[in-house]
Amino acid sequence: MKPRLRLGIVCAAVLLGLPACSADAPTPAPARPTAASVEAPTTPASVPPTASGNAAEGAAGAASSAACAEGERSVFACRSGQKHIALCERPASGEGSAALQYRIGRPGALPEMVYPGPGEGSPVFSAGTVTLAGGGGAWVEFTRPPYRYVVFSFWLQGKGETAGVAVEQGGKRLATLRCDAAARSELGADYFGAARLPASNGDFLP
Question: What does the domain layout of the chain look like in residue ranges?
Fold first, then answer.
């Protein structure tokens, strides 16, 4: 395997908190943060913040685990390996959109990433649906530059349900975590309308 290709695989794994794919893969410089952030970026937008140390402690104020808490609506939830993926909603206030939060992490532990995190300001979620021959799907997405995160649920003819979260950069897929079993999902036009989520400007296929 060429060194550049090996590095690309390792970087894709880091985006979703996965172990490196190769024991001899190049080790990033200690000062370079990863994309599995748990709080607002304190570094330039092109460099996602780290998921260790004080950043992990900062997430505790926002969510004690990746699972939705009592009183929150579970819009999407599933397990992928040892990770729990969730979209949790607090009731909308006034004419605003529903207050969504994306979380991922190991059950019973602090989330490895939440969006929005503490101090991150007003989140921007958008949603989309697509109809395919013999199937279709829906997704909710957000951007934490330079990455696009897409939580999706699709039904494909001959394959059944496929759901999970994907990470893209510049229109290229970097990583995908697929649910091990059927996801608990409300993703679809009815929910998007009720939650007043704006339509996505992009396309997505799982």
Answer: 3-194
